[in-house]
Each structure stands twice: as C-alpha cells, then as structure tokens.
Amino acid sequence: MEITETSEGGKAVAILDGRLDTATAAAAEAKLLAMLGQGAVIADLSAVRYVSSAGLRVLLKAAKQAKAAGHGFAVAGLQPAVREVFEISGFDKIIPAYDTRADAAAG
Amino acid sequence: MDQPRMTLRLPPGTEEVARLLDEVEAFAEEAEIPTALAMRLALVAEELAANVVMHGTGAGYFAFTATVTEAGVAILFEDDGPAFDPLAAPEAATGAGVDSREVGGLGLHLLRKMTRGAAWERAGGVNRLTCLLPRDH
User: Could you list the mean pLDDT of each consecutive 10-residue stretch along chain B, which spans 137 residues?
Assistant: First the structure.
C-alpha cells in the first residue's frame, strides 16, 4: 500500500494504491488521521483493488474523526468489487462516495 | 477435469495474513476466478485468518483450503486456537449512522453475507469451518 498526498480543487487528497487490509491498515490509518488533523480529506481509492474489514475500520475511524472535527471526508473511484464490500457493510450510507476525486472536490 | 485447489498452513501473525492474501490472489489468477469472486475469496480468507491472529490466543497454526467447483469456491478453514464459532458472533449494525456505528464485527458480517451453507465444528482441539462462496452472488 502506497499513499500519495495531492490536492484537488483546494481539498487534500490521499491517493491509496494497493490492498487496504490487515497488514496495511495501521499505516493507512495514521496517514489519513494525520491529514484529517489539517482539514477535509478525499481518499482516492481508484488504485485500491481490495478492501477488507480491517480497511473498512480505517475508513470508519476517518469518517468519525472528520465528523467530530467538522471536516468533510469522502472516498472516490471505488472499483466494482470494493463498492460491493461498501454496500454489504452499509458504508455507502455513511461515507460519501464519488466517481472521481474531481467530483468529490466539487461535491 | 481436475478442480483447481490451493491449501496453505501458516503460523498466526499479521505477516502471514498478508502472505495468505498474496497466495490467494495468485491462485485466483491462475484458476481464472472472476474478479468479484476473487475479491470475496480474499476477504473471507483474510477475515478468518485475522480472527485467529487477533483472538486465537495460543493457536499454533491456521490452514486455508479453497477448491474451485461449478457452484463457486468451497472453503475449508482450520485452526487450533480456542473454541470459537464465528457463525454465532453478534451481527454488526450495518444500518447505524456514522456516530453510533461500531468499529468491530464487520469481518464476520461480510463472511456471513458472502458465503452459503457455512458450518462450524470443534473436534480434536481444532476449529473447522466450511462454507461455499457462490459464483452468482
């Protein structure tokens, strides 16, 4: 899992690349929560082929911290298999998901 | 025709879970398992293995076997940790909002939603879970 920071329309973007799983969850969580300390974050998951429950926990913690801090947190570019996991878990109802990070920045 | 099969026995540890996922991905590619099914296979493998790593105090190993069949992928998972029936664990509240949504229980929720005919038994000091990942989900 590699995480690259960039920005889109003035919003911070974390581009995640690889598997978001038991082995990579801790590093991803540290990075996302640190970025959320500065403001709103969009997590671009278009290069993430796999999200397990350990990965979902990271995204849920990010969403909780964002809400507590009054920032936005959204995900963008979910691959179909990842979208299925989101839906089965009910995450589509609690974390805004956009097709692209440009959409997320505008939304 | 031979049914493609993989089996892997590892000591419990976070790095071994990653190793299992690597092997499952390689197997899925070799056996030409469709992407969505391959992802569900990896998910179930990870949930079961991670469960042993996190809760299976004293476990010496976990063993994952996947067999591709016409109906989908048949899974057998064994470990020698304490007796634990993942099918009896409480459900995650997937309808809850972001504030009340609990961080735990998700893995087993995914396991139960994605598989069919799951059965657990404890015999000879070993937890043994069998289930089917159907092709048409």
Answer: 91 94 96 92 94 91 97 97 89 80 80 94 97 89
A45 at the B interface (CB within 8 A)? no
Provide the residue ranges of all domains of chain A, joining segments of one domain with +.
Answer: 2-106
Report pLDDT for B88: 87
| pLDDT tens profile A77-96 | 999 989 999 999 999 999 99
Short-list B118, B16, B126, CA closest to B72: B118
Beta-carbon contacts of residue B123 (< 8 Å; ≥ 6 apart): none
Task: Indicate the residue of B50, B99, B109 with minimum beta-carbon distance to A89.
Answer: B109
Residue A64 C-alpha, separation from nearest chain B C-alpha, in angstroms = 6
Q: What is the CATH number of domain A2-106?
A: 3.30.750.24
Select from B35, B95, B96 the Cβ nearest to the Cβ of A81: B35
DSSP state of B54: H
**C-alpha span between A25 and B121 (Å, rounded):** 31
Contact state of A67 with B99 under an 8 Å Cβ cutoff: yes
Candidates 3.30.720.120, 3.40.1280.10, 1.10.260.40, 3.30.565.10; correct CATH number of B5-134?
3.30.565.10
> Rounded to two decimals, what is the model's pTM?
0.89
- CB contact, 8 Å: A81 with chain B? yes
* Domain boundaries of chain B, sorted by first residue: 5-134
> Beta strand pairing status for A41-51 and A73-76?
parallel
